Amino acid sequence: MNKIKLITDSTSDLRRETYEQYDIEVVSLLVNFGEESFRDLVDIDLKQLYARCENKKEFPKTSSVPPQVFVDIFNKYLDQGYDIFFVGIGKELSLTYNAANMALKEINRGKIRIVDSANLSSASGLLLIRAAELREQGKNVDEIADEIERLSHHLHVYFAVENLEFLYRGGRVSAGKYFLGTMIHAHPIIKVSNGKLSVYKTPKGKMVKALDEMLNEFYRIGPDKIDLGHVMITHAFADDSAAYIKKKLMEMGIPENNIYISMAGSVIGTHCGPNTIGILFIEK
């Protein structure tokens, strides 16, 4: 059986040491300020992104990379005798999935499996970790891809945002929802369902109400129905909120080592804004 190379894009929002631990190749997507383009995780990070938004009053846009980037990366590992597995941001949320598939069709050799996560951020990262564990168990690339495809339909993803400004300016929510959320001083909860973002709830008042609403979804499903091996908390400089959610999860009996906290990258941060925080997990 051939060696298996795991590849993702930079929206998977895992920590750098995790990518290194599992030998995962990361394709940097782009953050664009006017005519200037920056590679996520390479040329720009979340702190630099928000500083530029604040100081220069610029608002960035994001983009995928051209298919040729994937052609070059896939060929590099095929030439080394690898089978390839790719999962990244969902196809309804970015052109990245399409770019990877275009590369696959152009190469037309070797064994390459591409799975649509139908999701974003560390939900894709969670699938990657599971893929790495399956690889360690000796599964082949088809077995890994089939299982990750199955698990992608069991993801639960909730993000609480400080406000809807970044989502609105990035074209992710409508003007009506943006202005309504602003008027009632809400901290909207964004849910990912069927590969698309939607405003799930709009709790008003302090941010802790939004955090409790997300935790209530976790409680509602119930720990016995959730894969507690990896529960993800990803945020954009919302350290206090992350600590709060972690504490509540540990009070439920989830081991500290099973709670994975990461910082969003600049592509995800472009769309969610500062102080955003999410909880992401797999239902059995």
List the helices and strands and how they pair.
Blueprint lengths: L2 E7 L6 H6 L2 E4 L2 E4 L2 E4 L6 H11 L4 E3 L3 H13 L2 E7 L7 H12 L4 E5 L5 H15 L4 H12 L2 E6 L4 H5 L5 H9 L5 E5 L2 E6 L5 H15 L9 E5 L3 H13 L7 E5 L2 H7 L4 E6 L2
Parallel strand pairs: 1-2, 1-6, 6-7, 11-12
Antiparallel strand pairs: 3-4, 3-5, 8-9, 8-13, 9-10, 11-13
Gap between N and C termini: 29 Å
Q: Quick one: CATH class of the largest domain?
A: Alpha Beta
Strand order of the largest sheet: 10-9-8-13-11-12
What's the architecture of the largest domain in CATH terms?
Answer: 2-Layer Sandwich
What does this structure look like?
There is one protein chain. The chain is of the alpha/beta class and 284 residues long. It folds into 2 domains: 3-29 and 65-152, 3-Layer(aba) Sandwich (Rossmann fold); 155-282, Hypothetical Protein Tm841, Chain: A,domain 3 (2-Layer Sandwich), CATH 3.30.1180. 42% of the residues lie in helices and 24% in strands. The chain has helices at residues 16-21, 46-56, 67-79, 96-107, 122-136, 141-152, 165-169, 175-183, 207-221, 239-251, 266-272; strands at residues 3-9, 24-27, 30-33, 36-39, 61-63, 82-88, 112-116, 155-160, 189-193, 196-201, 231-235, 259-263, 277-282. Strands 10-9-8-13-11-12 form a 6-stranded mixed beta sheet, sandwiched between helices. The protein has a 4-stranded parallel beta sheet with strand order 2-1-6-7, with helices on both faces. A 3-stranded antiparallel beta sheet has the order 4-3-5, with helices on one face. Helix 4 (96-107) links the parallel strand 6 and strand 7 (112-116). The two termini are 29 Å apart.
